[in-house]
Amino acid sequence: MIKKKLASLLVVILAFLLQTTVFQKLALADVVPNFLLVVAVSYAYLRGRTSGILIGFFCGLLLDMGYGSVIGLYALIIMSIGFVVGFCQKIYFRQGLILPAILIVVSDLVYGIYYYITEFLVRARLNFGFYFLHRILPEVLYTALAGIVVYRLIAALEHALSLRREEDTL
């Protein structure tokens, strides 16, 4: 149990470091994949709502400390997405990649729209079409491609930790 929590913490920290350092240099169309959202969605899908909320909160809090103009906005967005995705844990298939890919794409779309509403629409910046085409859509595509790889790594780590836990109990 403690190993799973430590592994989750390390994955979150690693995702934050990758998103804020390495992939800043690999930005395509001035967009970076949202690894912290992918981590929250992956853990919510693999473990359920509680993990989705907790990991989503910490991922969002890291983003708030690094980039946020308002503390708690990213935390609220990613935490709520983690909660909703956690409902899909009941239809978890270990080998399938279609549902996690769909969840990552939809979650990033919701994240982008939610961010637009809270940051731009409130300030009367109404050019949603421009924001969607130049910010949300490229980020969704980049996050989806990188997210499938990240999801596979997290699923393999979770599987290895659950096998090891079963061996320890025998």
Question: Can you walk through the features of this model?
Answer:
By secondary structure, the chain is mostly helical. It contains 6 helices and no strands. Helix 1 (2-25) runs parallel beside helix 3 and helix 4 packs antiparallel against helix 5. The two termini are 15 Å apart. The mean pLDDT is 90.
SSE inventory with pairings:
Elements: H1 2-25, H2 35-47, H3 49-67, H4 73-86, H5 98-119, H6 128-169
Helix pairs in contact: 1-2, 1-3, 1-6, 2-3, 2-4, 2-5, 2-6, 3-4, 4-5, 5-6
Task: Specify Rg, calculated over alpha carbons.
Answer: 16 Å
What structural class do you assign from the helix and strand content?
A: mainly alpha
Share of helix, binned: over 70%
**Which parts are unreliable, with pLDDT below 50 for 5 consecutive residues or more?**
none
Number of strands: 0
Strand content: under 5%
Number of helices: 6
Q: Could you describe the largest sheet, including whether it forms a barrel?
A: none
What structural keywords apply?
mainly alpha, globular
In short:
The protein is about 80% helix and about 0% strand. By secondary structure, it is mainly α.
